[in-house]
Amino acid sequence: MRGDATRRAPLGRPLPRSAGGKVTRLRTLLESLLELERPLLVALDVDGTISPIVADPDLARIPDATLSSLEALAGAPRAGLALITGRALSSLARMEQLEGIWRAVEHGGLVLAPGQAPGPRELVPERREALELFQHWVRTHARDAFIEYKPQAIAVHVRAIAAKDPARAARLLGEADELAQNLGLHVRRGKALREAEAVRHDKGSALTEIFERSGARSVFFAGDDLTDFPAIEFAAEHGIGAFVCSDEQRGAPPASAELLQSVDDTAELLAELAKRITL
């Protein structure tokens, strides 16, 4: 499908284009998912995909109806569920306590099989020192940003600042970008976000690992940001990859991606998939 100017649905069916075609569009995608080879791995980004974006990430929630769908998918025969997120494990745990699922947190920095507990993770001294210097800058210059401190990364969120002072938000992102690069840290760019990582990871590698370890024969992945593109492209090669659109969208999604118009679209698709996949 990559590079097809007349983007087509999986299995060669054209996607409906009419404004009133939401039901048909989602039904087409649902039927394509149900035709994928089993076991099917359903893998999902969290924020902006199954959880609405909010200014304060600590206040983000996965709607109860979506959690019910996820629980059903986790228990479905010849299927598996994975959540692949930039959040730290402790942050994700505040949003869900699902059983029997795969989790990849910190953009794939930590991949956990169902029931697996995290082990110790140590940074070499020079990586730890670089992250500490970036932390000092954050505490000095970005005190009003929302900061996520992760075991191997620090994320600076400026969505709330941008709502009041877009110029300052852009300036903070630029400064964070420049400092992280000067310190030899990997820079991850997301929606109203800069993240400095001591060790580079990506969601595509995480999805590849889960796909191989789980024994799945096909995969569906949905995500909403630049950081999700590697996983979307992997899923498109082994099943179906989908991009969730939003007002904050930057740049075109991968040509291989099917499009979901909102978090509500994702919720509706998952609800129907949970019903049909268990039949």
Count of individual domains: 2
Instruction: Please work out how many helical segments DSSP would assign.
Output: 9
Order of helices and strands: HEHEHEEHEEHHEEHEHEEH
Task: Report the CATH architecture of the largest domain.
Answer: 3-Layer(aba) Sandwich
Percentage of residues assigned to helices: 25-40%
Gyration radius, rounded: 19 Å
Q: What is the typical, i.e. mean, pLDDT?
A: 90
- Strands in their spatial order, largest beta sheet: 4-3-2-1-9-10-11
The CATH topology of the largest domain comes to: Rossmann fold
Q: CATH H level of the largest domain: which superfamily?
A: HAD superfamily/HAD-like
| Uncertain parts | 1-19
Shape: globular
Residue fraction in strands: 15-25%
Which sheet architecture does the biggest sheet show?
A: 7 strands, mixed
Number of strands: 11
Task: Tell me what you see in this structure.
The structure is a single chain. With 279 residues, the chain is α/β, with parallel strands linked by helices. It has two domains: 21-115 and 202-277, HAD superfamily/HAD-like (Rossmann fold, 3-Layer(aba) Sandwich); 125-197, Trehalose-6-phosphate phosphatase related protein, domain 2 (Alpha-Beta Plaits), CATH 3.30.70. The chain contains nine helices and eleven strands. It has helices spanning 22-34, 64-74, 89-93, 125-141, 159-164, 166-182, 203-214, 229-238, 263-277; strands at residues 40-44, 79-84, 102-105, 110-112, 146-150, 153-157, 186-190, 193-197, 218-223, 239-244, 258-260. Helix 1 (22-34) crosses helix 9, helix 2 (64-74) runs parallel beside helix 9 and helix 4 (125-141) runs antiparallel to helix 6 (166-182).
